[in-house]
Amino acid sequence: MNKxxxxxxxxxxxxxxxKYYTVGNAIVNHFLWEDEFKxxxxxxxxxxxxxxxxxxxxxxxxxxxxxxxxxxxxxxxxAESFVxxxxxxxxx
Length: 92
Known about the structure:
The protein is mostly beta strands. It is built from 1 helix and 4 strands. Strands 2-1-3-4 form a 4-stranded antiparallel β-sheet, with helices on one face.
């Protein structure tokens, strides 16, 4: 299995109550089960300003070239999964 390289994914954000909040995209270079996957999400998601970590549940889906979902395991991260992960370069 080849590691993802600049894989575009859809990220949907839900409040802790489960209510839909917003949707956007991110670029990942790691498998879903690797901790670096969450770092990729924090660093490249294009929907929310920094500081969302720990406040939103995140649903991920792979996108193909036509921005339609394809062969990727949809996964829901709970809000606590992102606590303590800061966006790289935010102080630059």
